[in-house]
Amino acid sequence: MNASSAHKRTRNICLIVALGGLLFGFDTAVISGALEMLRNQFSLSTAMEGWMVSSGLAGCIIGVLGTSMLSDRIGRKKTILLSAIMFLVSAIGCAFPANVSQFIAFRIVGGIGVGMASVVSPMLIAEFAPASQRGRMISYYQLAITVGILAAYFSNALIVEVSAGDEKWRTMFLVMALPSISFLLLLLRTPESPRWLVSKGRRSDALKVLLQLRQPDEAEQEFSAITNASGRLKKNGRSLLHPAIRLPLFIGIVLAVFQQFSGINAIIYYGPKIFEAASNNAGNNM
User: For residues 82 and 191, what is the distance between their CA atoms, to the nearest angstrom?
Assistant: First the structure.
């Protein structure tokens, strides 16, 4: 395989995996346009409305806590496939709930999918990308989250504009089924992480994957580096408090906390309500 073809295949795989970020963003933002209609549909109290919105975050916590161990056990590919299935189930379930309890349950399912994708998508991209392009390719995932949020806003606005009736919110959630199905089908053609394969002793399979993504000499070098790193890790182990990990871990946690302190989630979830409160034209808030 020549360098151009190898790079193109690697980039395409990383873009496919980054679609998990797009579904993350879409799932996060789609409820903002449906909230008013949901409140009227189910006669929600303020507390129940807040729980309906935040139930997705409860699912995220569950997804994040379990995904690392799950991906180590069953593989990165099966884990991200599971997250895609959860996005699809959530989209259909939130579009056709029998009552508010079912809606919240499906929101939690979608949140679990978000939590899983937020862990395994960047991990999988990092394990596929060559070291020289790893930072850029991981940024595909963050960009996809933003695109997903924007897509949800545009989708909601379009549905409100062209649809009739009081249950437009069903269509808003059902739209997410389309990228979920695309994500699921594309993942079926994505190989397993070579690093995970090496960690499970499947070295020949790992080398086959690398030969599909790199030139032969590069594949051999990377395979050797992965094998050596896996051997050192099994032999010595490494604590989260190891000096080499401590500072990057601390910076990552602080950045995540500061991001939440910015209040951006409140804007994403309640943007239409905020614009409605700030404007005299309630019909233009979407």
Answer: 15
Say how far apart CA 271 and CA 181 lie, in whole Å.
28
69 and 147 housed in the same domain: yes
Q: Tell me which residue of 117, 260, 262 sits closest to 176, measured CA to CA.
A: 117
Where residue 51 sits, what CATH number does that domain have? 1.20.1250.20
Give the chain's domain count: 3
Residues 142 and 210 in one domain: no
Range of the domain at 225: 198-232
Residue with tokens 């394969």: 197
Residues 99 and 220 in one domain: no
Taking the alpha carbons of 166, 167, 171, 172 in that order, is the dihedral positive or negative? positive
Token couple for 280:
């005299």
Reported in sequence order, the residue ranges of 225-265 that DSSP labels E, i.e. its strands, are none
pLDDT tens for the chain, residues 1 to 286: 667 787 889 999 999 999 999 999 999 999 999 998 999 899 999 899 999 999 999 999 999 998 989 999 999 999 999 999 999 999 999 999 999 999 999 999 999 999 999 999 999 999 999 888 898 999 999 999 999 999 999 999 999 988 777 789 999 999 999 999 999 999 999 999 999 999 999 999 999 999 989 988 888 999 998 988 877 766 666 566 677 788 888 898 898 888 888 888 888 888 877 777 777 655 556 6
Spatial contact of 14 and 126, defined as CB atoms under 8 Å apart: no
